[in-house]
């Protein structure tokens, strides 16, 4: 899993660090400070999940509801 933070303002790192501490997230979070990556993917809101296959190809974007995400992951794993 890769986490990417977007739209946090001018100094996102302290906000991201607080969020991770509050929720017990212990992983690297990439910062898309200009939201350039999000714009390239057409992301308009957060949270948004982006499902990527083993080749690095984006296979689905959105998947905000857990049932949607679970179903998409099942499809990806079974293909």
Describe the 3D structure:
With 79 residues, this protein is an alpha+beta fold. The chain has two domains: 1-46, no CATH class; 47-79, no CATH class. The protein has helices at residues 12-23, 36-41, 66-78, and strands at residues 3-6, 29-32, 49-52, 58-62. Strands 1-2 form a two-stranded parallel ribbon. The protein is globular, with a radius of gyration of 14 Å. 0% of the residues are buried. The model has no long low-confidence stretch (mean pLDDT 86).
Key phrases:
79 residues; alpha+beta; two-stranded parallel ribbon; two-stranded antiparallel ribbon; globular
Short summary:
The protein is of the alpha+beta class and 79 residues long. It is 39% helix and 22% strand. It folds into two domains: 1-46, no CATH class; 47-79, no CATH class.
């Amino acid at each position: 899993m890769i986490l990417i933070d977007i739209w946090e303002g001018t100094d996102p790192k302290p906000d991201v660090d607080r969020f991770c501490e509050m929720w017990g997230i212990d992983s690297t979070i990439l910062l898309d400070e200009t939201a350039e990556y999000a714009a390239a993917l057409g992301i308009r809101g957060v949270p948004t999940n982006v499902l990527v296959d083993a080749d690095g190809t984006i296979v689905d974007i959105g998947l905000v509801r857990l049932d949607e995400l679970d179903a998409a992951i099942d499809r990806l794993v079974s293909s």
